[in-house]
Amino acid sequence: MDTNKHVKQSTRHDPRQQPQRRDNLLDLVITSAALATPLVSGVNVLNSHGASDHDLVVSNLSVLRHKPSSTRYTYRDIKKIDIADFDKRLQSSDLFTDPAGSPDGYLTQFESAVTTVLN
Length: 119
What we know:
Distance between the termini: 63 Å
Low-confidence stretches: none
Structural class: alpha+beta
Mean pLDDT: 85
Number of domains: 2
Radius of gyration: 31 Å
Order of helices and strands: EEEEHHH
Strand order of the largest sheet: 1-2
């Protein structure tokens, strides 16, 4: 597979600067050469000014960002619920007087009864 190597200069520097140690190209940005539209452009290697022994590799990426749709939530202030009234009304609902015969039916019934009592 043909590839494009976008970082062309050393990105790691040995702070000890010993003669047997040299700067290295360790931080890579590689893409497929077969792509019709380049994914990477404007690659720059910036000095980290001693914050790291690696330089900062900055580039532009031509990719679509998936932005998830927003979700709206509503809620009740449960501190304002009259617990005694809630309990009395729930126990007189069909959840207790005529419970569903299956787990799925009971779950549907439970959600309906609690919502009705809270409204």
